[in-house]
Structures are given as C-alpha cells and as structure tokens.
C-alpha cells in the first residue's frame, strides 16, 4: 500500500505530530510505502492567487477556469504539481490535523484550494441527460481511500447528536463528502480523539495502541457508504435525492449515506 500523509500542525512536539510520526513508523514496519506532506514544515503557501497560474491567469482572475487551463498546460506551480502527483501515486491518504473553529486549519484548507484544481479534482467527465460529470463516487481520484485523523479539544459529549457543537460526523461532512468523495475518494470512518486539551502524557500509550490498530486495518475497513451521484439515487440535473430512498426519519447530511 502506498500512503500519503498530509499533516497540518505547527508544533513538531504536538500530539498531532506524534500521531503522524507513529503512522509513518507503523505503516513502514508493515511494508508499506509512505510519503509525508508536512505543510507547516514545507511553509506551504495557503492562498490562491494569479501566481499559481502564470501566463494562464486572466484579468480579472477566474480561479476555476484559470486553474484548469494551467493544469491542462502543465503550467501550475511546482509545489502544486508535486502534491497532485503524490495524490495520483497514493492508494491511501491520511489527513492529520486538529479541529480548529469547527474546521480544518487554514493551511490545510489552502492546500485543498490550490491542489484540487479544475480539470484535476473537479470539472471532469461528461455532462448529459444521465450524468452530471464524474464526481461523488467517480472522478480523478477514484480507487483511492482516505482517512481523517482529527484531534478535538472538547469532550465527546459536546460533539454528539444532542451536543452543543453538533455531531462530529456533521462537522466533518464538508471534508469527507465535499472535498474527498467529490473527486472519487472512498472515505473511511474517521479516527477522532476528543478531550485532547486535557490529555496527559501518560494517556498516549493507549491512544497509540488504538491508532496503530486503525492503521493496520486500513485496507480491510469498510468506507462510509456515501451515495454515488450517477447511479440512480439522484434526479438529474436537479441532483435531489429521489423520493422514498431515505430511511424513515433521517434528514440532513445523513440522507446522502446509504443504509
């Protein structure tokens, strides 16, 4: 298995960095190839601008169309091309990050904004009466798996169905369904550590054991059963879920998960 780890934490001695290092050692010991994109160590440029597209940037700048032209011409900046090549190389992608303000750190969002360009991660495939592009189960990154490994400061009860912060699955839905499943990646259930702000060093061995177990079962874990866009569950072109497919009482993001 070839695994890309995209790591987003500024402190090399943090829990997130320890989990990243443990993932590298565990997977390599099991015979897997591993590459790491440590975004803070790389001093990753987190903002999209005209420099990303060189001579293919228009005025005024149109990010989607300009990024697509630059991608097709092989003219994206070297750092972006390198990350796209890593994604195409990988069988599995692990995202290691803390949940900050109900989302991923800005540097990781910037990685997505710059790397997931038009004609690479979206804007691919045919648009017809029966298909609406290759996305949500199809696309450039189909055949790959991804796992979010997320640390959360607050206790688990705060991120439950009745918790004040909302269910953790809802908070992660934009990244799991919108960023990863959109270009075809199968998304595994996340590895979430709650209450890390009060976690002591003495608790790390138990955390490490649970993380190692998840890592060694990546290939056998069933992905989240997100509905595929072009395979009968949605009306086209409205992309509304067809009546009667939802389980009784289910609403919101859960409508887009089978079963």
Assembly state (oligomeric): single chain
Biggest sheet, in brief?
6 strands, parallel
Please report which band the strand proportion falls in: under 5%, 5-15%, 15-25%, 25-35%, 35-45% or over 45%: 5-15%
- Unreliable stretches (pLDDT < 50, length at least 5) are none
Radius of gyration over all CA atoms, rounded: 19 Å
Give the helices and strands as they follow along the chain: EHEHHEHEHEEHH
Structural class: alpha/beta
Notes on the protein architecture:
Helix 5 links the parallel strand 4 (145-151) and strand 5 (186-187). The mean pLDDT is 96. It is globular and about 55 Å long. The chain contains seven helices and six strands, in the order E-H-E-H-H-E-H-E-H-E-E-H-H. It is 30% helix and 12% strand. The chain is an alpha/beta fold and 259 residues long. It has helices spanning 15-29, 63-72, 78-89, 106-115, 168-181, 204-215, 229-233, and strands at 2-7, 33-38, 92-98, 145-151, 186-187, 191-193.
Itemize the secondary structure elements and their pairings.
Blueprint: E1 2-7, H1 15-29, E2 33-38, H2 63-72, H3 78-89, E3 92-98, H4 106-115, E4 145-151, H5 168-181, E5 186-187, E6 191-193, H6 204-215, H7 229-233
Parallel strand pairs: 1-2, 1-3, 3-4, 4-5, 4-6
Which properties best describe this structure?
6 strands, 259 residues, alpha/beta, six-stranded parallel sheet, globular, 7 helices, 30% helix, single chain
